[in-house]
Amino acid sequence: MTTKFERFTQKAREEPRTRFNALRGMRFDPEGRRESVERQDGSQAPGVDGVRKEDDAEGLEARLEDLSERIRRVGDVPQPVRRTYLPKGDGRYRPLGVPSCEDRLVQDRLSRILQAIWEPELGDGS
Fold first, then answer.
1. Confidence grade of residue 86 (pLDDT, cut at 50, 70, 90)
2. CA distances from 72 to 6, 25, 54 (A)
3. Terminal Cα distance for the chain, rounded
């Protein structure tokens, strides 16, 4: 967990009624984007963009900068999610949405921010 997240978690524990706002800057932090790339599982299926983690390695820094800039100016529009269906044991199918590689990075970063804030409330054993 990065230092910024540790500070959020500590503050959330000490002051449970604190409201966190102005978190947008953490979403487009280039260091956080690289962390999200490293956290991605390379075996995940490609989304509508057809890109896998290993395909994304070439020119990664330039794409991360572009993504960060689009998020900064609120110009990042998520791509449609690829829908696939997994068979269940009773003959029915379960729908599964597969986001694009870029959208996974955005979702991971946002998830990490929210976990850092809400983790203390969920009973992490401390």
1. very high
2. 23, 7, 26
3. 17
Residue at token pair 């959330």:
12
Nearest to 35 by CA among 26, 44, 47: 26
Amino acid at 44: Q
Per-residue pLDDT tens digits for 14-23 = 887 888 776 7
Number of H helices, E strands in the chain: 5, 2
Give residue for tokens 């997240």: 5
3-state secondary structure of 82: strand
Q: Which residues pair with 95 in a beta bridge?
A: 85
| Helix, strand, coil abundance in the chain, percent, nearest 5 | 50, 10, 40
Summarised one tens digit per residue, pLDDT across range 60-69 is 888 888 888 8
State which H helix or E strand residue 71 sits in.
Answer: helix 60-72
